[in-house]
Amino acid sequence: ADRSASSACVPCEAGQMVPSDNTGPCIACSGNTTDADRNPSTECVACAIGQQVPADGVGECEACAGNSTDHDSNPSTPCTTCAGGSEVPAGHVGLCTPCTGNYTDADRNASSPCVLCSAGQYTPSSHQGPCEPCTGNTTDADMVPSTPCSLCLAGTTVPASHNGPCQPCLGNSTDHDFDPSTPCEECGSGSTVPGDHRGPCISCSGTATDADGNPMTACVTCQAGQYTPSSHVGPCENCTGSATDADGSPVTPCEICSAGNYTPASHTGPCQPCTGSTTDADSDPTTACVTCGDTEVTPESHIGACFNCTGNSTKSLTTGQCEVCAPGREVPTDHSGSCILCGGNTTDADSDASTPCFECPSGTQRPAGFFKVGPCIPCSGSTTDADGAAGTNCVPCGAGTQVPTNHIGPCEQCLGNSTDADSNAVTPCVECLAGSFRPASHIGPCTNCTGADTDDDASPSSECVTCQPGQYTPPSHVGSCIDCGGNSTDNDTNPVTPCVECQVGTSVPPGRSGSCIVCDGNSTDHDSNPSTPCSVCSAGLERPSSGIGPCMACEGNRTDTDGSPSTACVVCGAGTM
User: Fold this and answer.
1) CA dist., res. 75 & res. 89, Å (int)
2) Complete DSSP assignment for 420-433
3) Considering only CA atoms, which of 370, 426, 365 is closest in space to residue 398?
4) How far apart are alpha carbons 199 and 202 in whole angstroms?
5) C-alpha to C-alpha distances, 372 to 1, 296, 348, 365, 413, nearest whole angstrom
6) Among 80, 101, 97, which Cα is nearest to 146's?
């Protein structure tokens, strides 16, 4: 490199090339050139237009591809990336071309060409994204995609292709749903077009009619006394003859007044019916109704002459008609007014409303049911006339009571020591005696104190008391339990049997319940008294052989050789001690 034969050769690096005569410094690849094969011994390669030199000048030339372009036709500068809303020039050489006018970058990818929007569409303002169709209430009024879609207003309709100006609803047509996206609707006969052609066709309804059958003219309102055609097409029709506009509404047909009514002179208003006590005596609607007298009955149909009630019938104050009085009632004397109910203590004894109601005496009741029909029913068996009034039902006396003597008065409770022994109120209460127990509910037979039970307080109102072991039940089962005392015991632990006397040589058991305890083994009845426990003799003593008496000491030359008091003391012989 310093051209001196005395100096060593210098290796050139990647991105450089060796001078052609191998003398002088390494030559760096610069400008539009690159060390394409990373070999300094080969010459630098010049990159063509539409390419860029690698950033470090080492490696093959890089083509401007995809969204990039060689904007200045200079490979030494990097490729430029084209933004959305533009397109890459042909060959990727030259400046990015923006999408303008009716064109848009439909796929937001500069590598693909700008797309031309057609009539009926709208180019996005950013020229990025697909063409936007005019939809709904909008149209391409000037058929130029670069201008926004126009909004059609109510009273117009959008062209079928959304291409062209909004079309107004004219003549008999209207924008019936205030929605320009739907076609205008033609109004037919029986309706009228709104003044501004906006909104649904206005039907001639109610009292109105399309008198001339032309939707461009207003509906005509029919007046009272007239009838609107059912189709609401054609002129109003007048009510004539015996007909009237009954409800004052021309919507409904004229009504023909029938017998029992008369027609208003103006033919306006409902037919006037003969009501209350009036009747159409001659069946002619053009004549006035006739009023029936207080005791006369108006025909139910209000057609025909007035008449009087007879027999079991009476003129009802509510209906004005003859009403047959049913059993359980009586007819008013003048056959006018409501049937009289057999109330209080009375009944319709003979089922004949023409006879007076019968008064039931005490001790009876009226027949069942709201309407009292039939003879008075005596209280019998277990029932009684509790309040002495026949107007109320006989009351059944329940268990624990008895029926009063004449079946008049309230049920009598079994009280005190008495009980309803057979649970039958017909029979008198039974008095329980001492030695028995009356049921707490006063219902059921007296329960005798038996076995170990006794009536300790001689009162049947309290329960029998059970005598315990160590006691003896009184034979009459009346009185307190008798304790086994002194030398006696309840030897079989059964209070029903008498206490047993223990003999001398035995001891009364604890609690005086059980057999007498024999003093045996080492024990003795030391005091000849069975009421005290047997005494146990200790070693060195001798128990009396009869088991009665105190323990005896082995004295003199006698000794307790086996330490058992149950055996006799032994006499020691000569030569012993």
Assistant:
1) 16
2) BTTS-TTSPPEEPP
3) 426
4) 8
5) 150, 30, 6, 10, 31
6) 101
- Return the DSSP state at 452: T
CA distance 216 to 199: 15
Angle at 330 between CA 326 and CA 335, to 5 degrees: 100
Share of the chain above pLDDT 70, in %: 99
Nearest to 464 by CA among 475, 477, 474, 476: 477
Beta-ladder partners of 174: 185
The H or E element that residue 472 is part of is: strand 471-472
pTM score of the predicted model: 0.37
pLDDT in tens, 27-85: 888 889 888 889 888 899 999 998 888 988 898 998 998 898 989 988 888 999 998 88
Residue 235 CB coordination number (10 Å):
14
Cα angle 456, 462, 466 (rounded to 5 degrees) comes to 45
Burial of residue 565 (CB within 10 Å: 0-12, 13-18, 19+) is buried
Beta strands in 132-244, from DSSP E residues, in sequence order:
132-133, 138-139, 150-151, 156-157, 167-168, 173-174, 185-186, 191-192, 202-203, 208-209, 220-221, 226-227, 237-238, 243-244
- The 8 Å CB, 24+ separation contacts for 472-481 are 472/497, 472/498, 472/499, 476/435, 477/435, 477/448, 477/449, 477/450, 477/453, 478/434, 478/435, 478/449, 478/454, 479/454, 479/455, 480/454, 480/456, 481/454, 481/456
- Residue pLDDT, tens place only, 455-494: 888 889 889 999 998 889 999 899 899 889 888 988 888 8
Tokens describing residue 139: 């149209």
Strand, helix or coil for residue 3: coil
* Structure tokens, 239: 């009510």
Contact 18, 26 (CB under 8 A): yes
Number of neighbours of residue 491 by Cβ within 10 angstroms: 19
